[in-house]
Amino acid sequence: MAEYTLPFFSVTVNVPSQTSFSDGKVPFEITAAYTVGDPVEGRATVEISTFNETPLRREINLVDGQASFELDIERDLNVNADNFRSFNYIVVVTDSILNLEQTVQGNFRISPYKYQIQFSASRFLAAPSNYSFEISVTDFDNLPAPEGKSVAVRIEIFYNDRERENEVEEQELSLDGNGRTFGSISIEEGVRSINIRASSDMSSDRSWFASTLSGSPGSISLSSEETT
After folding, report:
1. pLDDT tens digits, residue range 24-33?
2. Taking the model in full, what pTM does it have?
3. CA distance 137 to 178
4. 70 phi and psi, to 5 degrees?
């Protein structure tokens, strides 16, 4: 007589790791299948939690091993347009045959903006020289922002001579088809450092700092510091 093996199953939960407030909703897709390939019939219990708030619970039946639903960012998750919020989720799927359970945990984040700004430039300034920098604007899946969108750049220049007032140069740059734009500034003798701040109505502002006193010559690509 052959030994009976319990029909174990696996669960996959698809939810964007990051969603913008303008998207309006966070989609959840749940798929459950036995190891033999058959879909699981049963139910899924979903618990969404964040710091210091009562968890949100949803129960939904699986149909052909699948279930889906959406969470309204404003109504269900109590997120407004000005905040970054992180959430944890626990999905428990129970099959209707033997009442077996499988649990999947994860997290996702709500951002006020759909896009993010990144810098690619050197942290080192050489004087005199022409300092160049690259700015890219992408969504959370690294897809480029629309071509032609503008990025405002404000460059503050600091001098070794403490009595010399800081100078400010402003530039308006347009994105190319790859969501990138390029800028430059002339660095004269006596410049100590510069601070570049990029802003767009599609994303949070970003800042980039470069100095004659730190690092070594050469181009590097680093994530910039996010500012509000």
Report:
1. 999 999 999 9
2. 0.70
3. 9
4. -130, 145
